[in-house]
Design a protein that fits this description.
This protein is mainly α. Helices cover 83% and strands 0% of the residues.
């Protein structure tokens, strides 16, 4: 029984991928630059070859492999365009939300010093408390929605929210008390 030479498939695939990369990277990169600009082209080209590596067994042989890579690049570029649109939309929405927050009557009527104290008090809390309070007050989520978002049960939301509000109140009182004292000292000088 004769056996042939042992072929290391992973080495063979690596060599074939290296050849594919060497033959096509520059063309794929240039295609990405023309469509996306230089800032995103390198990432897009890298994504194309990451897909090629994962789906290497699907790449057609010969010259058809070049067209296959361009088809992948076309899809990667489309994903990049969609991502850019989502980022712009989110940015616009955040700007809009900020404008609404600033124009609310309770915000306008609150003394500036109290608002600063509130933000300082909130930022002095732990990250978990800050997120919980923001979900509850800023985003207006219900306790069941908060439980879902944080992956905890509703009773835990009630307990954590109570403790977070207590800590916020304590820190706010401490900060606003010291701010009032500072204002009085500044007024007397």
């Amino acid at each position: 029984m004769a056996t042939g030479p042992v072929v290391d498939n992973s080495t063979d695939q690596q060599d074939r991928f290296d050849d594919l990369f060497e033959a096509n990277y520059v063309a794929i990169f240039r295609y990405c630059v023309r469509r996306l600009g230089s800032a995103d082209a390198e990432d897009a080209a890298a994504d194309v070859f990451a897909v090629a590596w994962r789906r290497f067994h699907e790449i057609p042989a010969g010259e058809a492999s070049r067209a296959w890579l361009f088809a992948v690049a076309y899809r990667v570029i489309g994903n990049t365009y969609r991502s850019r649109r989502r980022q712009r939309s989110l940015s616009d929405r955040l700007k809009s939300d900020t404008a609404v927050l600033v124009s609310r009557p309770w915000f306008e009527s609150a003394p500036t010093q109290q608002v600063r104290c509130l933000y300082r008090a909130l930022s002095s809390l732990g990250v978990a408390d800050q997120e919980l309070l923001r979900l509850w007050s800023w985003d207006g989520l219900t306790r069941s929605e908060i439980a879902y978002v944080l992956g905890i049960n509703e009773n835990a939301v009630d307990q954590r929210l109570h403790r977070a509000r207590t800590r916020l109140r304590t820190r706010f009182d401490r900060l606003s008390g010291s701010s009032t004292q500072q204002e009085a000292e500044e007024a007397s000088t």
